[in-house]
């Protein structure tokens, strides 16, 4: 019996979930959310496979398989004039709630976006400690130990 599929971590759900050719067609290709995320990380963000796999919390080999599947589906849609629908898959959406260590301003930012504070512009933004995703903080190279120290400093200031 195969192992159950572990949920893949994605930064956000896509704003556009369907692409259709100009000609009317009933044929469609279904792209899963994790395949969409793999294309985004590798081809749009330009991350190396190993870094992208860490971001999605999967192995490099699994990332490679997801990427190959996504590229094959997109190629099929382009060559045969099929619609692309982005939906489905076992994923968890990773939106981080940040708090600025300088001014205390709280804001939501997708993981790959800049974690600069929109209020003061400083890059001293960290994950808010009360949220569940903060356990695996380490956003934008902050590192878990440094993040914990920054959180402790914030608590002392209050």
What does this molecule look like?
It is built from 4 helices and 8 strands; from the N terminus they run βββαααβββββα. It has helices at residues 33-44, 49-56, 60-80, 144-157, and strands at 8-10, 18-19, 28-31, 83-86, 91-93, 95-100, 106-110, 125-127. Strand 6 (95-100) and strand 7 form a beta hairpin. The longest helix is centred in the middle third of the chain and has 21 residues, at 60-80. The radius of gyration is 19 Å and the shape is globular. The termini are far apart. Residues 129-147 have low confidence and may be disordered.
Which properties best describe this structure?
158 residues, alpha/beta, 3-stranded mixed β-sheet, 3-stranded antiparallel β-sheet, 4 helices, 35% helix, globular
